[in-house]
Amino acid sequence: MASAEQLQRVAQEQLTLAEPPSKKPESENGSSKPAATVSLMNRVGGFSWEVLDSAKTTNASTQRIDCLVVTTKAHHTTEALRQVVPRLDHQSVVLLLQNGMGIYEELQNTFYSSSANGKYNAPFFLQGTTTHGCYRSHPFHVVHAGQGGLWVGTPDIESAQRLDTSPTLNSSVRTLLDQLYTLPLGVRWESTFQLQARLWKKLAVNACINPLTAHFDCLNGALLDDVSCTSLIHALCTESSAIIQHHLGLIWDQKARGQWSSTDELAHIDVPLLQSQFTPDALVSQVQLVCQQTASNVSSMRQDMRAGRSTEINYINGYVVTLATRYNLPCSTHRQILQWFR
Description:
Low-confidence stretches: 1-41
CATH topology of the largest domain: Rossmann fold
Largest sheet: 8 strands, mixed
Distance between the termini: 34 Å
CATH class of the largest domain: Alpha Beta
Radius of gyration: 20 Å
Strand order of the largest sheet: 2-3-1-4-5-6-9-10
């Protein structure tokens, strides 16, 4: 990854990366450094970045944003976006790249829940998930620690249909994807349901590895060597499985009742086959595999805990609890995990 000095040497471009504006940048040990006092518009690999200072407005910081890539922590996303919402419109494209789930819904409810707040001026949202590994050595310097992939798609069927019927949006999304494809990220476009399934699977894995490594202050691989940890992994995966299976079952019921047209993306999804990927045993096996593959890694939540920062727990185990409450399903182990972080 490029350093801040390298970033400043490259030219301006149309894409913007958002960072949370509400706090000064923190180093890994929790100390802070002065925030930038000017707006910088620079480019790396086709993407521009801009350091926003809420106390100082420049011409650059009022320009309309065509494409926005949000790479903040999940719990910083709403505040990060708040500062640039006036610069987004219905033709803007926003790609959300975070751990956890529920961020898209939160942004919709916060900024675009009514026509008065700009419901009909909402940008077009995309979601993504990645298996690349990285860590921040100091502000504006991220070390790429592991090669992986990046999957991008629409967050719901309504968005997919909107994309299919809007040439302008299609062009804007293509511009973003073209820029992503130029980077060595292994970028792939996925259908809505494929992406959501990938997000659910990652959520189930993160709901085990992140809080357990943070709470017990251990490396990922150490979870498999402790009986109490493996017991918790089984309990968490059993609860996650029931919740995800119920969610998929509701979608299957819609298909069985003929609520989808033959051209609908979901009409071609084999939901029972997909459900088989979310059995308790399948999820436990996935957690074990990730622990083995990343045995010497320090999870992001453990890094946050050790640095005294807030964590993404509400968007990982908290989201599972939210679904369990919605569907009236048991979720005592995930609730217990949440209490560890209160």
